[in-house]
Amino acid sequence: CVVSSCFRAGEEEQQAQSKKALKKQQKEAEKAAKKAEKQAKLVSVRQETQTLPMAHHCRMEGFLLFYNSCDYKSADRALVRVQDLTPEKAEQQIWVRARIHTSRAKGKQCFLVLRHQQFTVQALLAVGDCASKQMVKFAANLTKESIIDVEAVVKKVEQKIESCSQQDVELHVERIFVISQSEARLPLQLEDAVRPEGEGDEEGRATVNQDTRLDNRVIDLRTTTSQSIFRLQSGVCQLFRDTLINKGFVEIQTPKIISAASEGGANVFTVSYFKTSAYLAQSPQLYKQMCICADFDKVFCVGPVFRAEDSNTHRHLTEFVGLDIEMAFNYHYHEVIDSITDTMVQIFKGLRDRFQTEIQTVNKQYPSEPFKFLEPTLRLEYKEAVAMLRAAGVEMGDEEDLSTPNEKLLGRLVKEKYDTDFYVLDKYPLAVRPFYTMPDPNNPKYSNSYDMFMRGEEILSGAQRVHDAQLLTERAMHHGIDLEKIKAYIDSFRYGAPPHAGGGIGLERVTMLYLGLHNVRQTSMFPRDPKRLTP
Amino acid sequence: CVVSSCFRAGEEEQQAQSKKALKKQQKEAEKAAKKAEKQAKLVSVRQETQTLPMAHHCRMEGFLLFYNSCDYKSADRALVRVQDLTPEKAEQQIWVRARIHTSRAKGKQCFLVLRHQQFTVQALLAVGDCASKQMVKFAANLTKESIIDVEAVVKKVEQKIESCSQQDVELHVERIFVISQSEARLPLQLEDAVRPEGEGDEEGRATVNQDTRLDNRVIDLRTTTSQSIFRLQSGVCQLFRDTLINKGFVEIQTPKIISAASEGGANVFTVSYFKTSAYLAQSPQLYKQMCICADFDKVFCVGPVFRAEDSNTHRHLTEFVGLDIEMAFNYHYHEVIDSITDTMVQIFKGLRDRFQTEIQTVNKQYPSEPFKFLEPTLRLEYKEAVAMLRAAGVEMGDEEDLSTPNEKLLGRLVKEKYDTDFYVLDKYPLAVRPFYTMPDPNNPKYSNSYDMFMRGEEILSGAQRVHDAQLLTERAMHHGIDLEKIKAYIDSFRYGAPPHAGGGIGLERVTMLYLGLHNVRQTSMFPRDPKRLTP
């Protein structure tokens, strides 16, 4: 195949010969293919591309390649990552694969900025020993976002290149292979997409609005900010699971298609299921609890949860990722709170220690204070929170739920008083919690339930669950729930159930609030809300 | 609260007094609760239970407890796990929490088998110093599957107790607290549920059929076999992720609700989405590929995939867990195959090394040969497989797909010839693969695609994907696919896309085939098929 013919410098003649032979072979293959497909119009792009190199002399010019895994395999052509281009590599001849971030031609020179993930490096082509006039022209005409392989010599620079992540070196390019060409017109510019919001306004430069970003997510995800957000989010999941596995938890998989809407039937998506209807699970709670009743003792799961809620706020999605925990305890549900808060603390520490580059990168576009937390985690009772809010002038009843503004205010008061961005609010009023919440044994107005907050916003809701079928029946009746619809749930507790508690964490919220971002759509790769189902 | 009053022996009087005070308090609380709830019928079970201990003298009798996390927290009452009851603990006074697996009264004695997860121990109550007549009677009347705390002395036994996992010790019980009572009539017996299939028939003993198991999954999951299967499955996920994270992969989360059915629209579940309709994702493939186009380079995800296929076979589910991989490669898609096969090998090794107890436990009920694999993994070309099958008498065309019986036959032939239960079949005929499959550059009849097999059954299907919008358009047209419907998919490749390949693994199939089981419903906690939506 053609690709293998275009490699060693100074072998043009051999190449020309083998190229002829290959062309012949290719034509034959082309004929066979056409015959087989019986569609005269379908000429393979692969073949077109390979027979249309931009130039014939590899050493001096560019080349278009189409990677369809022909037998060519270049063990001797290792690729160096952009992030590894440092002064230690000075004067080395290397290959790099990267995107063209920007391109600027200037007389007989062409300056490229090459980008791979969060990392950028400057590359220079100059007419002379290394590059022909045609090659510089070829390079100058390459579209931004195209992926290229370049062979180049690494050169130390006198003055730091402030605009690149690799500030101490540049590449002197000798060959360019185009791996994949981008269309010339991009739906958004990456420079605009990483500009801090205020800055754009002041200098009259463009920023990119959220819908444009999300409509063109494939490009928006290439920004240094997006790369950092989602690498850090991958870390959140990993730290969550590793911590729990160390604590003896078992990972479970729970079904998302369910036969009955467990929590009363509101806000549930309906699915057609063969000749009947089903629902999408609003939470894995029933299944987590069944696993506890089946002696798994400590379980967690990571998976999508679905809420058919018509909420168009900065923190609601119709589909998000739940990090769910359920745990049998020995004597007191605070054992479970302690396990969850310790897990959160391990996550915060892991992010701080392993993802500092990503945090700094996000901060450049979205500045925020470092996330603060205490050890052990601060636990306040609901009563105390109400007292703090009242002292700050809020009027509210003892058994009234917290409004979103009051949650945020409370977050600020707690931060002032205790200097933490993370805390637990324990002992919610029984009246504002679901029927399966265990009442407080010491005060019937309250319950063994808790929320956890990051920067004043809720990230987890949890409780000790009623593990006794009779009490559960009574509580459901008290809430006016149709017992027939939750029969399977209640029956799960009839054959011996250990006391247990748990909770569900919203992954996107954790990432958003840890980084001090302001919209959960920034931390969901492909967010779903009442108005968005694409891409 | 009452619970805390019933603890130390020899303090009966103090207890009686504090109990009175507590009863008074409780009555008052009860009144307040009643008033607040304004429902005369709703007497809290919690309170009923606490005021109805089975006996007043803790030391000598049993007691019913209701764990609602009253302030009692027993730091001095550590619980020992059943699996840790070994001769080293002989003569120690300990507390154990476990289920009553079996119970047998015999004159003045009562023998219990206590069970926690996969582990069992014998416990003995005898009228005498330690236990009163009433207590033995109380113990004898406890229902199977109830959860109890026992205080007991660990005793070495002369003769191994063959029926228990802890064969060298038994417990001499002094106190019993009931944590949660089971109903007397169980829908299935755990002894029946772990009986090997043949054995039941021969001895005229019952086994439990699959529907009964699944209908009562909370109990069926308590068997040693189920406990082992799902602990091992948790290990599969963990090994999969750890291996990939070590290789530099990033975990991504992809949406399950999608706006268009990507693969032609057959076998897709429809969801009502506010005022419009949506679909459940049949695979995360489009989103994995978008992440590749967004420079994440190596991604994986673990999540549910949905297939509205009316297949009622041993290996099809309508919802299963996909372990998905997508990876940009440098020069050849075999780089990706190598990454995937190495990941599978790491999983097999990890299971073999860390889950031997679980494997042995499952083998007791479902005997199978140990799983064999080679390093490096065997890779056969489709052509070779067809030749092997033809040599074995099968008639099939070059470009014909493998039928399920032929896959199994091939598995046996490969096992005979190469002694492996795991291999890759590479270079499938282009005609039998989806439109986005990259054609083989050397032979237009074939493609850069592959399946992987365990014990002769497919566990992964994958390919190099077409990363060029123009070729993708042509391939889609060739397949007669409405271009309008896949516009977003094709557009993803217009702004520079690296060559890439990937595949999706079915978690339940991996667990099933690794353990040599015969139905994928055994390895799905709550399986979904065209006929089953519950529990």
UniProtKB/TrEMBL annotation, chains A, B:
It catalyses: tRNA(Asp) + L-aspartate + ATP = L-aspartyl-tRNA(Asp) + AMP + diphosphate. Its main location: cytoplasm. InterPro entries: Aa-tRNA-synt_II (IPR004364), aa-tRNA-synth_II (IPR006195), aa-tRNA-synth_II/BPL/LPL (IPR045864), Asp-tRNA_synthase_2 (IPR004523), Asp/Asn-tRNA-synth_IIb (IPR002312), NA-bd_OB-fold (IPR012340), NA-bd_OB_tRNA (IPR004365). GO terms for molecular function: aspartate-tRNA ligase activity; ATP binding; RNA binding. The keyword RNA-binding does not apply. It is an enzyme of class 6 (ligase). Residues 8-46 form a coiled coil. Its EC number is 6.1.1.12. It comes from the Eukaryota. One of its GO terms (cellular component) is cytosol. Residues 230-535 form the Aminoacyl-transfer RNA synthetases class-II family profile domain. It is found in: Cytoplasm. Keywords: Acetylation, Aminoacyl-tRNA synthetase, ATP-binding, Coiled coil, Cytoplasm, Ligase, Nucleotide-binding, Phosphoprotein, Protein biosynthesis. One of its GO terms (biological process) is aspartyl-tRNA aminoacylation. Pfam families: tRNA-synt_2 (PF00152), tRNA_anti-codon (PF01336). Belongs to the class-II aminoacyl-tRNA synthetase family. Type 2 subfamily. PANTHER family: ASPARTATE--TRNA LIGASE, CYTOPLASMIC, ASPARTYL-TRNA SYNTHETASE. Catalyzes the specific attachment of an amino acid to its cognate tRNA in a 2 step reaction: the amino acid (AA) is first activated by ATP to form AA-AMP and then transferred to the acceptor end of the tRNA. Homodimer. Part of a multisubunit complex that groups tRNA ligases for Arg (RARS1), Asp (DARS1), Gln (QARS1), Ile (IARS1), Leu (LARS1), Lys (KARS1), Met (MARS1) the bifunctional ligase for Glu and Pro (EPRS1) and the auxiliary subunits AIMP1/p43, AIMP2/p38 and EEF1E1/p18. This is Aspartate--tRNA ligase, cytoplasmic. The lineage of its organism: Eukaryota, Metazoa, Chordata, Craniata, Vertebrata.
